[in-house]
Amino acid sequence: MIRSTSRNRLQEFIPNNWTDFDTLLGQVFGPHAQVRASRSLAAPAAIWEDDNAYHVELDVPGVSRDGIELTFEKGTLRIDLERKHEEVERKGLHDERFYGKTTRSVALPETIDKETIEAELAAGVLHVSVAKIPEVLPKRIEIKSSAD
């Protein structure tokens, strides 16, 4: 007796969820095909404070000083970045670098002195520091000893 099955062989090749689908795309088009389609210029950030200031660092390899614009408005530090594609004619075989524009915004507390915002670009890292208002810095109180 021959049994007829209604099994669709195409289902063997179609993933069950989006993660599997992304993996399938990566296998077909290369490891960076779906990444390039889903994100533009990235600028990983580190944000911290010390006793006197707040600090923001962004990794911006390939971004020139002219490709960075810093603004501070209504308590928010805004960093606009642009990495321009080289305008050189070449036969590219593979390019994993990202180009284009991106914006990072950092909300800063009211305890900053906006007049002290400083920025430095060195070795592909943008470092922005903002001093705290002196009145809000902790005050160390000396304890006197009394002779008994």
Keywords:
2 helices, 2 domains, 148 residues, Immunoglobulin-like
Nutshell version of this structure?
The protein is mainly beta. It folds into 2 domains: 9-38, no CATH class; 40-85 and 98-137, Sandwich (Immunoglobulin-like). It is built from 2 helices and 7 strands; from the N terminus they run H-H-E-E-E-E-E-E-E.
Q: How many β-strands, per DSSP? A: 7
Shape: elongated
| CATH architecture assignment name of the largest domain | Sandwich
Based on CA atoms alone, the radius of gyration comes out at 26 Å
Look at the structure and give the CATH class of the largest domain: Mainly Beta
How confident overall, as mean pLDDT? 79
How far is the N terminus from the C terminus?
Answer: 110 Å
Q: State the low-pLDDT regions, or none.
A: 31-39
User: What oligomeric arrangement do these chains adopt?
Assistant: single chain
Number of helices: 2
Structural class: mainly beta
Number of domains: 2
